[in-house]
Specification:
The protein is mostly helical and 256 residues long. It has 14 helices and no strands. The radius of gyration is 23 Å and the shape is elongated.
């Protein structure tokens, strides 16, 4: 019989995992590791995922640590998953150390982007402006066109407004408008720029006395960002943007 290639053997192990034949999946991945070092990182990562799936945390941690040694995308993902395990186990210092390693050594990775966004969004809601600015600048620098990077640039502008740094806010808004003019946050940035320069009112954040909210017909369902959409009670179908904004909790409206 023809001996399967290392790639074929790796795919076979992944197939076993998909069929919930975990022991066979682990055994096959170990065979891959012994045969082909170029696939070892991916194989160790898969073993970690299999073992985590059946709550064998010690085995999962060991496999993820092994995968991390091989670097590459698998190594970064393994580090990320290892940090999630440590957080679940309340080993917060160990989790933060791994996250810092990812952010420092793999700043353009999806994992680093997620870490920076979580830090940014949590700091934003806690009004820890300095922490939010640090994480927001990282996102804007390393991942300016990523969905989180675009959102972070807008919210950096809002933080600068909150802290009285109008010139910095305008610089952020202009950059975002130039980079992503047709995006949701590019649209928001344009209105903030108009408001700050006295050229017009931002209909999202203010309704002039005597003005009907129905005068603004933009539907938030077409424009609203993911994080903000989650703050709303309903799904927003057929709902107008300003009316929905006025229904937000007071603390959320104050933040915006």
């Amino acid at each position: 019989d023809k001996v399967p290639s290392s790639v074929a053997l790796y795919r076979k192990g992944r197939a076993y995992w998909g069929l919930d034949q975990d022991d066979k999946a682990v055994a096959t991945m170990k065979a891959v590791i012994n045969r082909d070092s170029s696939l070892a990182g991916r194989a160790f990562l898969t073993i970690g995922q299999v073992e985590a799936g059946r709550n064998r945390w010690a085995a999962a941690v060991d496999a993820y640590n092994q995968a991390a040694r091989y670097g590459g995308e698998s190594g970064v993902t393994a580090r990320w998953k290892l940090s999630r395990i440590y957080k679940e186990q309340k080993k917060l210092d160990a989790a933060r150390q791994i996250e810092q390693n990812i952010v420092t050594n793999f700043p353009w990775s999806e994992e680093a982007t997620n870490i920076n966004w979580d830090g940014f969004w949590n700091a934003l809601h806690a009004r820890r402006w300095n922490d939010a600015i640090v994480n927001g600048r990282r996102l804007a620098s390393h991942n300016p066109n990523h969905a989180y990077g675009v959102a972070a640039q807008y919210w950096l502008g809002r933080i600068y407004e909150k802290t009285g740094k109008t010139a910095d806010a305008l610089a952020v808004y202009r950059g975002l408008i130039g980079r992503s003019p047709s995006s949701y946050y590019g649209w928001r940035a344009w209105f903030r720029q108009q408001d700050l320069t006295g050229k017009g009112m931002d209909p999202w954040f203010a309704v002039q006395p005597g003005r009907k909210v129905d005068d603004v017909s933009i539907r938030w369902a077409d424009l609203l960002g993911k994080q903000e959409r989650a703050l709303l009670a309903g799904n927003g179908k057929g709902t107008q943007l300003p009316r929905e904004m006025l229904d937000w909790p007071e603390n959320v409206r104050e933040l915006l």
